[in-house]
Design brief:
BCAA_transport_permease, ABC_BtuC-like, transmembrane helix, two-stranded antiparallel ribbon, cell membrane, two-stranded antiparallel sheet, 70% helix, mainly alpha, globular
């Protein structure tokens, strides 16, 4: 039990990473009822955009100067790719059967991976990403790596800014109206196309923040990093109630805690020795999803878009 605070901290940090990416899934689905399965690759290109900015800086540049520039570059690349995908891949299929955008998203994922390969031929291998140097912090018996400080600050800050934006700004209220009834919102003078683009852009920006946090945390990026993490983030969005931005973050935290605690404790349960450890953490994450959906199909906080009916 003396390890419990450390495992809780590890799970919350990992869950915050999942939650940042999950927001992109839930915002797009909440407005256009589209599961953007290319969002994992949006996360990935944000990481490589940040890496490109880092490699372009003169040698010896302070990491405290490099990180903001990397963050801006990652957000710029992810946002441009997401907005371009919405305009040229998804918008023409907006009235098509739902299977068509799904297939398009899968194809877009492959295209984005190949584009990364064209700029980074060795992208399938892990590319070194800068890590914040220094010894970890010790806080009430919990060890926190310096590279995790970025994520600990960025995730709550992003949620506060997004919550304020949605609740207090004119564009945020237009986003809520479009989510509830896009046809009526258009009749009321809301430019729904602009709102949809905004949802893609905000989700991509959050994914880029998560990509920089991932790179700082692991010290590497690679072309496959968006596949599993994107799937986990989608799971977090469904777990929290897809279409609910607060549910996305809650689902991410629940998923991270499940992975952290299952990795540490399942193997110590009598008869479960073979089902513990890091190799089974992904399995237990999806077991949690199945259990929650069996008990509460709309997710932990409910599916906001279900209120349309």
């Amino acid at each position: 039990m003396h390890e419990l605070p450390q495992q809780l901290a590890n799970g919350l940090i990992l869950g915050a990473l999942y939650g940042l990416v999950a927001i992109g899934y839930t915002m797009v689905y909440g407005i256009v009822q589209l599961i953007n399965f290319a969002h994992g690759e949006i996360f990935m290109v944000g990481g490589f955009g940040a890496l490109t900015a880092f490699l372009a800086l003169p040698g010896g540049t302070s990491l405290w100067i490099a990180i903001p520039l990397m963050l801006l570059a990652g957000i710029l690349v992810s946002t441009l790719v997401a907005v371009g995908a919405e305009r040229f891949a998804y918008r023409p299929l907006r009235g098509a059967p739902r299977l068509a955008p799904l297939i398009t998203a899968i194809g877009l994922s492959i295209v984005l991976q190949q584009l990364v390969f064209s700029f980074y031929p060795d992208a399938k291998k892990a590319r070194v990403f800068p890590k914040i140097p220094g010894d970890p912090f010790e806080l009430v018996g919990v060890t926190i790596q310096r590279s995790d400080i970025f994520l600990i600050i960025a995730a709550p800050l992003c949620m506060v800014i997004l919550g304020w934006f949605v609740a207090k700004t004119r564009s945020g209220r237009a986003m809520q109206a479009t989510s509830q009834d896009p046809d009526t919102a258009k009749l009321m003078g809301i430019d729904t196309d602009r709102i949809i683009v905004m949802a893609f852009a905000i989700g991509a920006a959050f994914a880029a923040v998560a990509a920089v946090a991932y790179g700082l945390r692991t010290g590497q990026v690679d072309s496959r990093m968006g596949i599993l993490l994107g799937l986990k983030a989608f799971t977090a969005a469904v777990l929290g109630g897809i279409g609910n931005i607060y549910g996305a973050m809650l689902g991410g935290l629940a998923l991270g805690l499940t992975e952290g605690l299952a990795t540490a404790y399942i193997q110590h349960v009598p008869g479960m020795e073979l089902f513990g450890g890091a190799a089974w953490k992904d399995v237990w994450a999806f077991v949690l999803l199945i259990v929650v959906l069996l008990v509460r199909p709309q997710g932990l906080l409910g599916e906001r878009v279900a209120d349309r009916a």
